[in-house]
Every structure is written in structure tokens, then in C-alpha cells.
Design brief:
The complex is a heterodimer of chains A (224) and B (232). With 224 residues, chain A is mostly helical. Chain A contains 10 helices and no strands. Chain A is globular. Chain B has 232 residues and is an alpha/beta fold. Chain B folds into 2 domains: 159 residues, 3-Layer(aba) Sandwich (Rossmann fold), CATH 3.40.50; 64 residues, no CATH class. Chain B is built from 8 helices and 11 strands. In chain B, the strands form 2 sheets. In chain B, strands 7-8-9-3-10-11 form a 6-stranded mixed β-sheet, sandwiched between helices. A 5-stranded antiparallel β-sheet of chain B has the order 2-1-4-5-6, with helices on one face. Classes of the chains: A mainly alpha (224), B alpha/beta (232). At the A-B interface, helix 6 and helix 7 of A face helix 2 and strand 7 of B.
């Protein structure tokens, strides 16, 4: 495989891992909150979290572009205060991947938290444990398999993200080109063999992530 | 133990739990048909349910007073709870379960892990996973776990219900031993007159969320019009 393709593969893996790692703590905490009984604003948060799943990815990308552009609320703040440019950089790729894969992580982890017997947390309270300790010693370990599966699904989603990424980060070779964007570009330039090579890599990586995720979930239901 | 349960009103699915009672005794039984509110009452005392109104006082300590807006959290109440299924933490070993809420106690204390495990005959199980032990052993581990938190009151929800007759006899012996050695007051939910008469000195009878009778178990069970559940 050509040097350029290796660079694209490493870049895609890097930004996918980084975006998944960045959404993990917040996503798991939000999933835990959503698994709690009623609280004010819960259904609004639920809907907001699910939006990237149902909106066209380019629409999500457009929202991100408006938010993080130089004249956007977040973009101008970051540029003025920290001197950080987001749009059309690798950072924009990470943000697009994170936003698009966030719902998968939250939904899968939420189901895992909901499956934890609430009686266990109640008994932990009678044994003197505070909510933070209960989260780390009861809820998190018992939901761990579901969280791992959700993380892998989110990672797989990030690997293949296209629409939001191209809107907010463009397709700049050597700078923001991911596997999905490059496949599209190769096909447009009639470089089918290069496109197929990346397609093969893409299928392999996505297959591995989804397969491991399914394996983890199966093991979870078998252990019940 | 002196337990005041006043002005209790807790809506349940089919009827509310309405109680007004002063209970006194070392081991007090809560008896009644399925769905009469026994477990809900234990949950309420442990601080796991929020009632519409309640005043709960244990030996002078107010646990909950909805009118005075005073409510101790389950963590502050110091109440050991042994639920019906044991509710052991499935990802922890037996030892991990025992030490989860244990307060520091030196090796010779009756509240050391070694001693409690010895009393409840679970010393050989300490390194086992909870998935590998039997139902009776799970109940003993749950009781040991609650004891190790050095509670001021133990709530036992049908601890022997799932055991066969031989194990029940052994379970009763162990409970008598715990009662004698630890002197921790207990509320004991059961359907079984045999169990109740064996270890309880007082009893209340709940029906549809209301206290319909109270007294010494022997007196109540010999009364003619006393309905009996779980007798063969």
C-alpha cells in the first residue's frame, strides 16, 4: 500500500481513538444519569443526545460548522481566548467523530446501567456507601461489559464517519483526510484500486470492532 | 429496642401503608400475607422509600420526621438490611461483599470479619465468588455483611424462606446465636409461625398495609381467629 494510504489509515485510527476516548467519561456519566429514575429535563436531554442518530450527518456537520467557525459562538471564543482554530483542522475531525458516535456510546451504556439491579445500589447505601462510591464500585463494574460494547460501537461509527466530517473539516490531504473521505475522493478521481484498498481496510476494522462488541455483549448475557 | 412508627403514610401499588405503632422488643416479627406491605415497611425504615408522611424514631434517634423536615440518609441511619434474595454484589467475592460496608474492627472484636464469618459458618467461602455458593450460604453472607457494618438495627426479610427444612433449622440456630452474641435488635419479616415463635419476642400482623394485631407470637398464633400463612 502507498505511503499516502498508510498515513490516511493511521490518521483515521488516531482521530477515532482520540474522539472515542474524549466522549467516554462524559458519555458514561450521562448514560448513568439517563438510567436514573425521573429527573427534570431528562426527556429533553434524551432527545438531544439522540439527534445526531436521526439528523442527516451533513446537517449535524453544518451545525458544527456554524458553532465552531470563526464567527461561531464556540469558534470565536476558542480563537480569541486560546488561539485555537477548529474548522478545517484535525480538531474538527475529532469533534465531528465524537458528536456522531456519542449517541451510540450513551444508548448502549444506558441499557447496561438499567440492567444493574437497583436493589444492589440500595443495599450499598445502607452499608454506608455514598453515591460516588456506589457508582465506581457497583454500577460501573456491573455495567462494564455494556460500556465496553458501546465504546467499540462508537469507535466503529467514528471510523466510518463521512457527512459531518466533510462539512466541518473538509477533505484536506495529509491534514483532515480520513478513510471514508479518501474513498469518496478516489472514486471521484476514478482511482478505483486505491479506493478498494481503503475499502478493504475499512471493512476489516469495522468488522473487528463490531464483532468484539457483539462478543462482549453475548458474554454478558451468558453470564447472567 | 424502642421503635416509634407514627403517622406513617406510604402509597403502595394497591393500597397505602398506614401505621401508627410503638414497638418494643429485641426481635420483633412482621407477619402478614404476601403484598401486605412488610418489605415496604423495612425499606421505609432503612431510608430507601420516601413516604408522604412519617415519624420514625429508634431508641431516641429520629430517623425521619417529615413534619419537622428531618431525614437521615440510609448511610446515616446505621441499619443493616438483609433483603429477601440477599442482594449480594455479584462481581465481588464473598470477602469483598463482607468488607464492603465493614467498619474497622480489630481481630479479637466480635465485629471482625474472622469472627463474624466463624459465627455464621462461612469462613471456608471467603475467597469464593458469590455465583458459586448456595442460596442458604448467600443468606448467611448477606447477614454477615450487614452485621459487619455494626448496625443499630437489623432488618431481615424472610431470610429462611428459600431454604428446605433441614437448612431452616440450621438457619434458626445461627440466628439465635447472632441474637445472643450481638444483641442487635432485629425486625424479622416472615410467613412462618415456627420461625417467629422460635426467635421473636414481639410481633405485629400487617394486612393491606395496616396493623391489625400485635402481641407476643405465642399468644397471637394460639388465638382462634388468627390467620396463618405458610403452614403446611
Amino acid at each position: 500500500m502507498e505511503h499516502d494510504n498508510w498515513q490516511i489509515i493511521y490518521f483515521t485510527l488516531g482521530v477515532s481513538i482520540l474522539s472515542t476516548a474524549l466522549i467516554l467519561p462524559g458519555g458514561v456519566f450521562l448514560a448513568w444519569l439517563l438510567a436514573r429514575p425521573r429527573w427534570m429535563g431528562k426527556s429533553l436531554v434524551e432527545t438531544l443526545v439522540a439527534l445526531p442518530l436521526v439528523l442527516p450527518p451533513v446537517a449535524t456537520g453544518l451545525i458544527l460548522l456554524k458553532l465552531f467557525g470563526r464567527r461561531g459562538i464556540l469558534g470565536s471564543f476558542l480563537e480569541k481566548n486560546l488561539g485555537i482554530d477548529i474548522v478545517f483542522t484535525w480538531r474538527a475531525v475529532v469533534i465531528a467523530l465524537g458528536v456522531m458516535s456519542f449517541p451510540l456510546l450513551v444508548r448502549t451504556s444506558r441499557v447496561a446501567f438499567e440492567e444493574v439491579n437497583p436493589r444492589l445500589e440500595e443495599i450499598a447505601r445502607t452499608l454506608g456507601a455514598g453515591e460516588t462510591r456506589i457508582f465506581f464500585t457497583v454500577a460501573l463494574p456491573l455495567a462494564a461489559r455494556g460500556i465496553i460494547a458501546g465504546t467499540l460501537l462508537a469507535f466503529a461509527r467514528a471510523l466510518g464517519e463521512f457527512g459531518a466530517t466533510i462539512m466541518v473539516a473538509g477533505n484536506i490531504p495529509g491534514k483532515t483526510s480520513t478513510i471514508a473521505l479518501s474513498i469518496y475522493q478516489y472514486v471521484q478521481l476514478s482511482q478505483d484500486s486505491a479506493a478498494f484498498k481503503l475499502l478493504g481496510v475499512s471493512v476489516l476494522m469495522a468488522f473487528a470492532a463490531v464483532w468484539i462488541s457483539e462478543f462482549v455483549l453475548r458474554k454478558r448475557s451468558a453470564s447472567r | 429496642m424502642k421503635l416509634s412508627l407514627k403517622n406513617i403514610h406510604l402509597p403502595l401499588r394497591r393500597f397505602p401503608l398506614d401505621l401508627d405503632a410503638e414497638l418494643e422488643g429485641q426481635v420483633i416479627a412482621i407477619f402478614g400475607p404476601n403484598g401486605s406491605g412488610k418489605t415496604s415497611l423495612l425499606d421505609l425504615i432503612a431510608g430507601l422509600r420516601k413516604p408522604r408522611s412519617a415519624f420514625i424514631q429508634l431508641d431516641g434517634l429520629v430517623l425521619l420526621d417529615t413534619q419537622g423536615a428531618r431525614s437521615l440518609s440510609p448511610q446515616q441511619r446505621g441499619i443493616g438490611y438483609v433483603p429477601q434474595d440477599g442482594a449480594l454484589f455479584p462481581h465481588l467475592s464473598v470477602l469483598g461483599n463482607l468488607t464492603y460496608g465493614s467498619k474497622r474492627a480489630n481481630g479479637s472484636s466480635i465485629f471482625s470479619v474472622e469472627h463474624v464469618a466463624d459465627v455464621l459458618e462461612i469462613s471456608h467461602l471467603l475467597n469464593c465468588g458469590v455465583g458459586t455458593i448456595s442460596g442458604g450460604e448467600k443468606q448467611r453472607v448477606a447477614l454477615a455483611r450487614a452485621l459487619l457494618s455494626q448496625p443499630r438495627l437489623l432488618l431481615l426479610d424472610e431470610p429462611l424462606a428459600s431454604l428446605d427444612e433441614n437448612l431452616k433449622t440450621k438457619g434458626l440456630d445461627l440466628l439465635r446465636r447472632v441474637r445472643a452474641e450481638y444483641s442487635i435488635p432485629m425486625l424479622y419479616v416472615s410467613h412462618s409461625p415456627e420461625e417467629i415463635t422460635a426467635i421473636c419476642d414481639q410481633m405485629i400482623f400487617l394486612e393491606y398495609g395496616k396493623l391489625v394485631r400485635r402481641g407476643h407470637p405465642r399468644d397471637l398464633f394460639t388465638a382462634r381467629n388468627m390467620p396463618v400463612f405458610g403452614l403446611k
